[in-house]
Design a protein that fits this description.
Two copies of one chain form a homodimer. The first copy, chain A, has 151 residues and is an alpha+beta fold. Chain A has a single domain, classed as Arc Repressor Mutant, subunit A. In chain A, 40% of the residues lie in helices and 26% in strands. Chain A has five helices and six strands, in the order ααβααβββββα. In chain A, strands 2-3-1-5-4-6 form a six-stranded mixed beta sheet. In chain A, a hairpin with a 5-residue loop joins strand 4 and strand 5. The structure holds zinc ion (ZN) (4 copies). One zinc ion binds next to helix 5 of chain A. One zinc ion (ZN) binds next to helix 5 of chain B. Chain A binds a DNA duplex (30 and 30 nucleotides) through helix 4. Chains A, B: Pfam families: FUR. Chains A, B: It comes from Aquimarina muelleri. Chains A, B: GO terms for molecular function: DNA-binding transcription factor activity; transcription cis-regulatory region binding; zinc ion binding.
DNA sequence: TCTTATATTGCAACAAAGTTGCATGATGTG
DNA sequence: CACATCATGCAACTTTGTTGCAATATAAGA
């Protein structure tokens, strides 16, 4: 399993270090994007805050991960699928930000629709974030309602 | 002209104070969203940073202004058009963030398109930001190229 | 394996934005 | 004009992002 991450680092000419492998395995295991503070907590204090910051910055520049800003403007990171590289990210999928658990989901299968922008303006990238309640939180809410009904 | 702002404050049961009127007149005069730091600079040190923060927070809650996060996750604010109120903002227009001048434009005429989200997820709001080069910056770039040709 | 150039990390220090509590002052109502 | 309430200013603090520099780990070549 580690081989996957090692070859990923090699592909981008990055040295294989413990902190980097930790970051990759954490991000890969989750189906939601992760903020730096959360990553810090998960990795523990073996890795310095600044190191983490720089790892994330490097990974983003190399097209290994992409950044999504949450409700508060805090950066969250998720693995780029497939074919992103240093020169162009193709993360043109929609993101869903749950306002209850605050998780950010990459909706990889949902493409950002095209729009017409005013003439004179040139668009390079677009960002589409949907805010609401995720599946897990919806189910929890249902369960809560049901358990109250039973009483 | 001030009457407009005064009645706006009255409508929302907010006291008419100098700092609030300043904020409203600045935001209304601009066709781009404004960050809090910029507002601070424009208003000057008559108004405390925290006061400004609270004014913006109140205005946003009342549906007088809406918040857009820029590239760096910094909050920018723009007047809500027409019919927003305390209970629902209807700011479902696309925003354009210029990567050169960093201005954020409200594209009031361009609605955010609907998308299908996975079943189980419930969306309440959506955010669409287009990043690129705005009209002004495009023209400046053209002029620059032309002036170089002439030499 | 040892050596060396260079990439990476840790620490310290700082900057920017957001946030809270509390005392003081302004506003609007009767 | 008095009073209740809203709004402001100040101080203090948190979180996130960022840079410089010295110490260390990595990879490649001898
Ligand atoms: Zn959720
Ligand atoms: Zn994503
Ligand atoms: Zn511009
Ligand atoms: Zn807008």
């Amino acid at each position: 399993m580690n081989k996957e991450f090692i070859s990923l680092l090699e592909k981008h000419q990055l040295r294989k270090t413990a902190p980097r492998l930790s970051v990759l395995s954490i991000l890969k295991a989750k189906n939601t994007a992760t903020s730096q503070p959360d990553l810090e907590a998960m990795i523990g204090k073996d890795v310095d805050r600044v190191t983490l910051y720089r790892i994330l910055k490097t990974f983003e520049e190399k097209g290994i991960i992409h950044k999504i800003l949450d409700l508060n403007g805090t950066a969250n990171y998720a693995i780029c699928h497939s074919s992103c590289n240093e020169h162009d990210h193709k993360d043109n999928h929609v993101h869903f930000n749950c306002t209850v658990c605050l998780h950010i989901y990459c909706l990889d299968n949902i493409q950002i629709p095209d729009i017409k922008i005013p003439s004179g303006f040139v668009s390079h990238t677009t960002n589409f974030v949907s805010y609401g309640i995720c599946e897990k939180c919806s189910k929890k809410a249902e369960q809560y309602v049901n358990s109250n009904d039973e009483e």
